[in-house]
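To whoever is covering the structure queue this week,

Two jobs came back overnight. Logging them here so there's a record in the thread.

Job A:
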Amino acid sequence: MRVWRCSPLWLCFPVPNGKGERLLDWKAAVKIPWGILILFAAGICIASAFVSSGISPIIGEALAGLRT
């Protein structure tokens, strides 16, 4: 989860190669499908909320009846 919060920091840190280049420049950042990354992060947040609230086992038991 913390990785998603820190991903914009890739634009800030230089690569340790002595040239002062960034890990991720703006041209590459524009091409990243940010919508997919946000959707993935939202799924992780929802799953974490389900587990912490205790609703995850309830949903699991409800879906267990759908076996074929």
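Job B:
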Amino acid sequence: MQHFAFAVVLYKKITMKRFSYFTVFAFAITMLTSCQLIGDIFKAGVWSGVILVVVVIAVIIWIIAKVAGGGKR
């Protein structure tokens, strides 16, 4: 019963916004293996790969900033 109470308290502490970011991040990590991703990038071409890497890095930085509270004023 204590585990259930702990889970409820933990759920209340985590906002749905942060939980959804974590869910998307965890889904992306589990669904894309590194070898498959690199192979797909090479198939698409070098510039597509460069653009994809820049976009992914920008999204990761944005997510970290939002989770860390950078959007609050």
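Note for Job B: The mean pLDDT is 72.

Please reply-all if you pick these up so we don't duplicate work.
Q.
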